[in-house]
Amino acid sequence: MNMVMGPNAEQIFSFGTKIYLQLALSLVAVVLICLLEWWLAGKMCKLINRRISIITIVALIVFMFTSQLTHAYGAFVARPSVVKTARLIPYNYPLTARSLMRSLGFTPAEVTSIEKSSGDIQYPLHDIICHTPDSLPNIVVIFIDAWSKRSLTDECMPNIFSYAQHNIYYANHRACSNGTRSSIFSTFFSVPDIYWKDFESSHVSPLVIERMLQLGYDMRFYPSATLRNPPFSDVVFFNVPNLRTETEGATTLERDKRLANDFIADLPQMQKSSNPFFAFLFFDLAHSPELPQELTTKFQPSWTFADYPALSNDADPTPFLNLYRNCCYQIDSFVGEVLKQIEAYDDNTIVIISGDHAQEFNENHKNYWGHNSNFSQWQIAVPFIMHTPRDTARVVEYRTTHYDVVPTLMNRYLGVDNTISDYSVGLPLDSTADRGWHIVGSELNFAFIVQGDTILEKLPDNSLQVYDPNMNEVDSYNINPQKFNEVINKMNRYYKQ
Length: 497
Prior knowledge:
The protein is of the alpha/beta class. It has helices spanning 2-5, 17-45, 50-76, 80-87, 98-103, 158-165, 180-189, 196-201, 207-214, 232-235, 252-272, 318-344, 377-380, 405-412, 481-491; strands spanning 117-118, 121-122, 138-144, 168-170, 173-174, 218-223, 277-283, 349-354, 360-361, 369-370, 384-387, 394-396, 400-401, 438-441, 446-449, 455-458, 464-467. Helix content is 36%, strand content 13%. The strands form five sheets. Strands 6-7-3-8-11-4-12 form a seven-stranded mixed sheet, covered by helices on one side. The radius of gyration is 24 Å and the shape is globular. The two termini are 37 Å apart.
C-alpha cells in the first residue's frame, strides 16, 4: 500500500487503469469479508457476556493503536528500544509515517556522530584506520534501476556499450538483491540487507560516505524517483549534507532527462573546486517503462506502457521487452551526454555504471516478469562497467558483486587500511579470490547463490527451497555443511556474539 499510495508513489510505479481497478475490487472484497466477520462476531457476542466482549474489543483496539503510533514515532526519531522490539514479533509490519510526522512539524533526531558499537551491532568490527592518499579521485556512480544485461547492445545502448568496450567490463557481476531497497542499502553499506532495521535504529551511516565526508568530498545526489520512498534519505544517506531527494518532472522520462542535465550543469563548478566530488545518478525509466508513441519506434512492436494484466506464462514478451529496450535507448542518450561531459574534463575521475537489480521477461518460462520475485540471474545479474584513470580496457570473467564496490573505493582510493572484513562481506573488484556463497535479498526474503548459480532460498518457516539456475525445484540437494556455516557466520558477522 505504501509503495502504491505513499509519498511520490507515481515515481515508483506506473500502472494502467486496469491494475488500479483490480486493486480497488480486491480492496472491496477485503472490506466485505471484514463486514461479514463483524456480523459473525456480533452473533457470537450474543452467546457470551456483552460487557466482557466490549472490554476485550476496546482493549485490543487501544493496544493496537498504541503500539502502531508508538512505532511510527519511534521509527521517525530512530529510537532503538522501539525499533528493535518491533523486530522480535514474527510477521510484524508496523506503521511508519515519516512524511506525516514532518508535515506535523516533528523533527527527526539529529545524528552528530556514529558509534562503532551500538546495541546488538558491532560495525565496523574495529576502529577505522586511515592514511591520507596522495591524490583523491572524483567518483561518479551511475545506476540504472532494473537494468537487464539483454539491453546492453550496440543497437539498444550504443553509448554505454562503447564505454564498456573501452573500460573494464565485469561480465559475471551480481547485484545484492532483486529489489531496489535491499540492493542500494547493501551496495553502500557492503553488508546484507538483514541489517537494515538494526542500522536504522543504531544510527549507523555507510562508512564509505563517512570517509568521503571526512576527506572533504562534495557530495551530490541526482535521483529520478524520490529517495524518501523507500526511505533511503532516513537510513542510507541521512548524514549527507543538503541531500537532494527529489527531481522535478511530470513523468519518469522528464525526471531522468532533468537529472542528467542538472549534473552536467553542476559539473563545471564541481571541477573548479579544490575538493573532490562524489556524484550518484539514479535513472528510473527502465523500472517504470512508459513512453509517448513517437519514442517507441526504435524497437517494434512496442507497448507505450507496461500492461501487466496482459502478461502470462504464454504471453509474447516482445512488445513489453521492446518497450523496455526503447526506454533503455532513451536512458543511453542521457548517460552518453553525461559521459561526454566527464571526459571533456581531467581524467582524475572514477566512473561506475551498473544497475540496482535486473529485470526478467519470463526467460525462465515460469511466468516471472520484472523483479523482486526470484533470485535467478535474470533478476540479479546486472552489467557493471568501471573506468579508472590508469586501468586498461578488459573484460573480467570471474564473479564479482555489488558488495565489492565499497572495499574497492575504501581500500584502493580513500586510504582505509583496515582488513576489509572489518566493514564488508565483499572483496576488492580486482581480487580474483572466490566470493563463496553470495547472499542476496532482504531480511524477509533472502537466498544464497552457490556454485553453478544454484539458489538456496530461505522460506518464511526458515526451511530452504533449492532451485537450479532456471528456477526448477531441486528435490534432493546435499548442502555442504562447512560452506553453509561459513556463509551464516559471514552474514551475522556484525552482530555482537
